[in-house]
Specification:
The protein is an alpha/beta fold. The protein contains 13 helices and 20 strands.
Length: 459
Amino acid sequence: MTPQEWIEESKDKLLSELKEFLTFPSISVQPAHRGDLRKAAEWLQQKLVSLGFRVEMLGDPPVVHGFYQGPSGSPTALFYGHYDVQPPEPLEEWESPPFEPKVTEKAIYARGASDDKGQVFMHLAAWRFYVERRGGIPLSLHVVIEGEEETGSKVLSEILQREGARWRSDVVIVSDTAFFDEDIPTLTVGLRGLLYTEIRVRGPKRDLHSGSLGGIVENPAIALAYILANLKGPDGRVKIPGFYESVRPPSAEEVAAWRQLPANETYYLGITGAPALAGEVGFSPIERVSIRPTLDVNGMWSGYTGPGSKTIIPAEAGAKVSMRLVPEQEPMKIWEAYKDFILSLAPAGVEVSVSQLHEPTPAFETSTNSPFYKAAEEAIARTFGKRPIPLREGGSIPILNAFRQALGGVPVILMGFGLLSDKVHSPNEHFRLSQLWRGIEALIQWYSLVSKPSSLLAE
Ligand SMILES: [Zn+2]
């Protein structure tokens, strides 16, 4: 039975299992969901045990670590994924409830369908194929699935430092990225880093009557607005001193790869639904979303926002501000420059403080020369009928640098099958069924190709 035939025959069973996995509201940033994180981890534990893995649960929320002993002499791969998800809010914008998965003709809808439960599930399915139809998985496997990817991977970072050496592997495989488009397969060769901060502006001890006391104190909301408005210029450039220092221009290969993509304004307008594109002057949209650093306000609050009017000067204002970083930017250096800049913008009459909300993450790059990368190209070409284009992606996977450190410079393959239109982190997140099925097939191919390293190395 070919992988294709097996997938065809197993579709109903696989879909109902994936739906089970998507039902857990495993939202790592909200403390009320601790128990749901554990339930999702236990679900994975049980699946791995049924496939013949030896499984341990480490820390809380648990890092699920499974080990599968492959044939002697076969290489060892480490699969990394995450079972935690972003909060589903705003709930009223979901067409079906975020944790009641809904399958339509084209896609499965749920929080986590694409990021990353759906993609974790594809690997479970690929291993299942080998166990059911080929008498076992053709290589040794460490499986590491955590519940804190969306909040900075604290537990896993500690485990990696402590015992990561035990997980020594020849390659790390991750499926937590996206194709450029359904008909344009891409392999991710770089990710931006992340610096996530919160600014707090404090004024009077309590909200004040804006009539009887208006005119004598600085308004924290206005002070915050002033600070935020000064973070970027009208040319879209971030004004933090030294922010762009050492950021390098794209290589000739990168530019050549982008030329093959229909990454034009219409494409991005379609995906974003924005009335117009904006951003750093002098760079194309694809450069802005991949090789240029960015700064964004993720949320802000102050004063009275309920119905009707309430005449106050708020006591406090706050904002969450994040930056996506590129390989040449050192997160701690940017943090220091950012903090100094914010404090220098603070008007008199308010107290401003800045803090980090997330482990700072440097950007990540992967080599296109390893046999494991070539195997990924080959597996995608065989399944999707086109060779994938190497592309840097704008998102971040904080833990990858820690894996590389713990495992000693191992190649990391970012073979993701999401689509940029999956609405990841937004209402109505979904995963294309065609990507799900073909992706499982491509992964079955990849595991087969990398299980015979001699044939790969001979290339
Ligand atoms: Zn993810």
